[in-house]
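For the sake of clarity, the format in which proteins appear in this thesis is described at this point. Each number in the token line that follows is a code from a learned vocabulary of backbone shapes. One such record is shown here in full, so that the layout can be seen directly:
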Amino acid sequence: MLALRGNDLNVFNDLERLLIELADQMAATPSNISDDLYSRLRAQFSEEQLMELSAQIAFENFRARLNRVFDVGSDELYQPAKTEPVPHSSEKHA
């Protein structure tokens, strides 16, 4: 989630970035999905899968916009874990 907020999409694979692009386009106003994006999506997903993914994205967008009407804020349930950096393989102890 932090990568999305910072717009660093390098942590995601090509398929994940494609879905993020779809979500971004669906959340834009107006939400227009280009023929190019649709073609790239159809190369990866069946029509049924794409309908299900799009419906879920639309539902989450609906909820986010509805929350704005009533000024619903975060419940602060998500707290990023404070973890120690993972050592590189050359730094690991035997």
Notes: Residues 17 and 58 are 17 Å apart (CA to CA).
